Amino acid sequence: MTTTTTILSLFLFLLFHFLWVSCQGIPPVQWTTETVANTPPSQRGAGRMDYFQDNPQQGPTFRDSLYIFGGFDECFNATAPGCEHVWNNELWRYNFQSQNWTNMNPTPDPVHGVPSARGFLGSDVYTPLSGTPSIIYYGGAQYNPLVTVREWYGDIWEYIPSTNSWKNRVPTNSPIPGARLGPAIAIWRHTMYMFGGISTSFQFLNDLWSYDLVNDTWTVIIPSNASDPSLPPANFAPQFQLSNNGAVLQALYMYGGNVFPPGSGNQNEEIWKYSLTTNSWSKIATVPSGPGANVGRVHGASTFKNTNNKFIITMGDKDDAISECRINLPSAGQLPTNGTWYMREANPVMPTWTEVQTTFIPKLKRVYYANKGDVALYIWGGFGFTCVDQTDVAEWNFNLYKLDISSI
């Protein structure tokens, strides 16, 4: 595909998109680019980002910030001599007031040091009823381009912004989930919930655990059973969100993720809801069938908007077995896609997927993402591809994007 053809195709797409939105009479949701006053972190993907607003009584130093941790600079030709992934364990902060990125270099844990470099981990902000808010990180992995040399992690790390320090949390009981790639976590009050991932033996998991952040104890809620149709498909890197009414945790939602076998590009397109009341999962049927193959959702971004019970998804991989371009990796066939969708569950009306029209559409995968309550969804890092002479050329993202979700 020539450069001229590419530009013409992009122009026609944008023109059609503008005309469609205009005809619908629906104001598009705003994508904007945040101002960055200095050099951002180096290229990377598959790490974690969290929005953090500390208690105003503790001063403005660590308020209204985004923190990113981990991820890797990916080699896209596994058979090329010297081709290696570059994994990192840096922790960076973007401050909205100064508009600067800062490599925080946190103080190590006095006994366990700092977390190992990794990607495909879980994280969430921990806001205890009393005490200092922090960020919890769990699991992850690193491996070489052919995945013949690998290291999986099952440790729990806490980053404390008020002291800029690491704390390694050591469970005080057994059993424990074990090391895994691509676990999904969400925190409510003093409890961390964890779902799925891939074990060190490449077993795809669909277990559900809780971790007591006060007593440092694991509890298995539902064991892994990939053949049980009453459970979500065993997968890794799904979108995992909790809903609450401000005082009570209402449910856990799971969507997407890669399913067995590894490297197949197979993606789960189902939404599942976990009820704390019945201690059971239920599959949520959608009408129409939902985003489907046009909007794959692994390594994308999501949030749950509690004010109107909307599960919002954007970015991520598209399972594309006949792509014009191929990359020489075991995970080839999953290409960046765009589009923003939401699902709202409301009885007695069946839940439906609805596509959101937006003003600007980044097209990225393996992004870092974080939500600011029900106001905004932020995206940084990750990459897209441009097809050059039948080869996918990676284009890394250094912009910090904001999606205004207040009107969704």
Give a quick rundown of the structure:
This protein is mainly beta and 408 residues long. It is built from 1 helix and 35 strands. The strands form 11 sheets. Strands 14, 15, 16, 17 and 18 form a 5-stranded antiparallel sheet that branches. A 4-stranded antiparallel sheet has the order 1-35-32-31, with no helix packed on it.
Helix count? 1
| Number of beta strands | 35
CATH superfamily of one domain, please? Kelch-type beta propeller
The structure class reads: mainly beta
Instruction: List the uncertain runs.
Output: 1-24
Shape-level CATH architecture of one domain = 6 Propeller
Binned strand content:
35-45%
Mean pLDDT level: 85
- Report how far the terminal alpha carbons are from each other: 36 Å
Helix content: under 10%
Radius of gyration: 20 Å
Please identify the top-level CATH class of one domain.
Answer: Mainly Beta
Descriptive overview:
It is globular and about 50 Å long. It has a domain at 34-170: Neuraminidase. The protein is 5% helix and 40% strand. It contains one helix and 35 strands. By secondary structure, the chain is mainly β. It has one helix at 3-24, and strands spanning 31-33, 48-52, 65-69, 72-73, 86-87, 91-95, 100-103, 122-126, 134-138, 141-143, 150-152, 156-160, 165-169, 180-181, 184-188, 191-199, 204-212, 217-222, 235-236, 239-244, 249-255, 258-259, 271-275, 280-284, 301-305, 310-314, 317-319, 334-336, 340-344, 352-356, 368-372, 376-380, 383-388, 391-396, 400-404. Strands 14, 15, 16, 17 and 18 form a five-stranded antiparallel β-sheet that branches.
